[in-house]
Amino acid sequence: MEILVCAKRVPDTSENEIELNNAGRDIERDDLVYSINEFDNYAVEEAIQIVSRIGGAVTVVTVGTDDDEEILRREMAMGANQGVLISDDAFTGSDGKGIATVLKAFVEKAHYDLILTGAQAEAGEAQVGGMLAAMLDYPFASLVTAIEVIDSKKLKITREIEGGNKEISEIDLPCVLSIQTGINEPRYVGMRGILQVQSVPIPTFDAAQLNLNPATVGEAAARVNRVDYFVPALGKGAEILKGTREEIAEQLIELVSAKGGLK
Amino acid sequence: MEGPAHATYWLVQGQSLFIVLHVLGTACFAFIVAKRLTPLLRAQADPRFDHPIQRLGNVLKFWLGQWRHPRYRVGGILHIIIFAGSIIRVIAAFTVLALGVSEGFAFPGLSGRAGPIYNLVQQYAATAVFFAMVFAVVRRLIFKPARYAVPARFGKPHTADAILLLGLIAALMAADGLFEGAKAAIETQRGIATEHLAVLSLAWMFNSAVVAGSAAVLWNLYLGAYLLHEFAFFFLLCYRPFGIQFHVETSLFSIYFAKLDREILKPVRWDVPDERLAEVKSFGVKTFEDFTWKHMLDFYSCADCGRCSDQCPSNAVGRPLSPRFIGIKARDYSFVHYPVLGPAHNGSPLVGNIYSEDEIWSCTTCGACEAECPLLVEHIDRIVDLRRGLVDDGKVPQSLQKPLKALESRGNPYGKLEKKKAEWTKLPEFQQTCPVKIVNGSNDASTLYFVDSVTSYDDRMQAIARATARVLHSAGEKFAILGPAEKDSGHEVRRFGEEMLFAALRDHNTQAIQNAGVQRIVTSDPHAFNALKHDYKDVPPVEHVSQFIARQVNSGAIKFKEAPADRVYAYHDPCYLGRHNQIYDEPRGVLDAIPGLQRVEMKRSRDRSFCCGGGGLMLFYEPKEEERMGVKRVQMAAEAGANVIVTACPFCMANIEDAIKVAGMEGKMSVIDLTELVDQQMVRTSVIPKEISAMAGD
Fold this sequence. Notes:
The structure holds 2 protein chains of 2 kinds.
Chain A: E1 2-6, E2 9-11, E3 34-36, H1 38-54, E4 57-63, H2 69-78, E5 82-86, H3 96-109, E6 114-118, H4 128-136, E7 140-151, E8 154-161, E9 165-172, E10 175-179, H5 191-196, E11 204-205, H6 218-221, H7 245-258
Parallel strand pairs in A: 1-4, 1-6, 4-5, 5-11, 6-10, 7-10
Antiparallel strand pairs in A: 2-3, 7-8, 8-9
Helix pairs in contact in A: 3-4
Chain B: E1 8-9, E2 12-13, H1 14-41, H2 52-64, H3 73-88, H4 90-99, H5 114-143, H6 159-190, H7 202-210, H8 215-239, H9 247-256, H10 293-301, H11 307-311, H12 313-316, H13 323-337, H14 357-361, H15 368-372, H16 379-392, H17 398-410, H18 428-433, E3 437-438, E4 447-450, H19 453-457, H20 459-474, E5 479-481, H21 491-495, H22 499-516, E6 520-523, H23 526-535, E7 542-544, H24 545-555, E8 568-571, H25 585-592, E9 598-600, H26 629-639, E10 644-647, H27 650-662, E11 670-673, H28 674-681, H29 690-696
Parallel strand pairs in B: 3-5, 4-5, 4-6, 6-7, 8-9, 8-10, 10-11
Antiparallel strand pairs in B: 1-2
Helix pairs in contact in B: 1-8, 2-9, 3-5, 5-6, 6-7, 6-8, 9-10, 10-13, 20-28, 24-25, 26-27
């Protein structure tokens, strides 16, 4: 099975202190470290596991700049067969639809049985997966928590819905799935793996190679534009439970039960 | 009188019978041993052929001298009796065997006056071995020391096999005694001059028992005892390579080839230098053949004594790891995959087959097992090698992936900003009294205080950093820190099997330290100390702050005021200060220099110290366990009558502080770092900073 995973490089939320820049429309990026969007990492792991079960290849694609090669190499070290970078100045300032347009053009150049995206990006709007499916006229399922390959034409997928319930569906291939974290346990990517793929060439495509009309992407085409960025004011502080250890435990159980956490 | 060689056994002449038996028995043994050596030939390289004098020294101390055996009193003394008896009896055993093929054989040099003297000694030796065996059987069956038990998850008990082997050796001793006793009785009956038997020895007792027997009975006993000896001997010889008794043959080699510098962690491949590591196709131990030949030899040498697991803190708190069975399971695996009969076949990866991932991650590398092992087995190296294999396959627990990734991108496991590395120095009241400089090449610092990453960022541990800085400052030391240029020492990164990440951290720090142009390094973290001392190259000499303080105390530069009378202190040896670097006395010396300080020792101290739960990445790992190591440790301190635990490691501090809360002993027990205590008790001319007076009042 040929699987394409669309990935994005984002500031690593666990390793940064996010602060607003002076203009107030973006975050301060000088001291940031980046990594692959966590959801996308689960999607790559899932793709690698499917391929190791039934054969095929995993391609990881990202729309970005040379800096974004870093995450492609990391995913190749993880076991993806190929990384592809789509990069063009014309893409700068694209909204979700613009990115989906770029990816659609790439998908149409090759053949993929299955396209996975993360359910959302940590710094994104959870738009691209659904839009890409619609543009390609592929079936789409979001927030997928398990994938079972039935045959070369069909998958059985599990989605987690409200309240922890599960919904199981069949979906025709080719299709687009957006992957929820927790679908698997992504493997560790060590320093050695990254060093080993350091010099593997990464194919790069620009707008012309994908036959994209620059007017359909980038800032000019964007119909969603960010106007502000703010950190919400701190709300009421945490509730501190008081009493003996047993009393605290009882209060905690009551609180959790009241919120539906215990049945 | 005629011996077994000239006698006839069921119409077969003794000499012919025994020549056949000896040739067959020896050939069989040689064949089995050759088969046992086949996996060693397919194993990884391990350079153990240097420093013969030092290695012979180890043989004299640990093999012939049985140095570590008495650490377990009863078992150790029994073993020494059996070992010494057997060594003494080597000539006697050879002579008895030779008598079967060479009538009237006498060992060269023992035909004259020396013979009877040696015989007296060897008869007592045989008697001692026999009764030691009887005692050992009784002990196994009735007293059942806990450390011999086999938990169900590791298979069936080993008792039957142990008793069979003990019984066979006892039978050998008895057969020899009966042979000699019957011979003397026959000689007495025939009026021939007979050698004096050692009074109260087995031979003497048998002689007394049978001396009144008829000539025919005596003759049959004489030949029967010899036959029993022959069969027991060769059966035992050929059976030994199938179990723990193989250590009789292999232990000498295991000790001779034992690692000489035990603090040097095994490199990924002994035969591949660091700069060529990229060429290595697979890291660590994944399949059995990835072990080095020495590790395989140690699997054979393990005598199943259970001391490693008895000392192992992971085992004590119910984690899945029992170091004893890392070896035993590997040995059993090699018996199955390299059988004596039939071809060898490679098997599946070891983890997932004979080991579980949790088992391999459970080890804190505290070294308690290695400090105890009478055969010098290298437990930590094999655990680290198994981890390297797991890391290479991406099988790292989720709880460790984030800190490892953060160490890669930020140089600390929390993923905190590099520019905040020196935030701990910026507490206003601290900064005023003890300004800490960051090296920039132009300041006059000759000493580098290597803080390490967890101490730099963890709220509680930062107090240890400040106390260290104050002590250095008060002692007049010109020191500075690397600040943002310092990354994690990588000590646990390496011990968790992420060798390449460690190498990157090491190279970065080495460069930063060299750029600092300092003459010496001081650190308050034993893990960083161990890394800088043993894992790094080309850095200035490194000292743990306890060594620095001890020197200042001895020279009179640091003086103390009276300790509080209501406190009883127990010093907890951090693994990487004590066991791994033999720094036991300096911290104790510092404590004892504080006037009026009451100090008690925990039962488990010095090289038997009990790990608090582990440092570095171990703080992030979520083990499967029944209770915390720290809780056990706190209870040990309470048992010793202490109400303050003094340690000299930020991780011990954190683990023990948590454990005091978990054990519900807040108010009854507290923990303090040695530098903090020194900081509190030091006589200073200047004003006492607020942080100290606050601590002193708690």
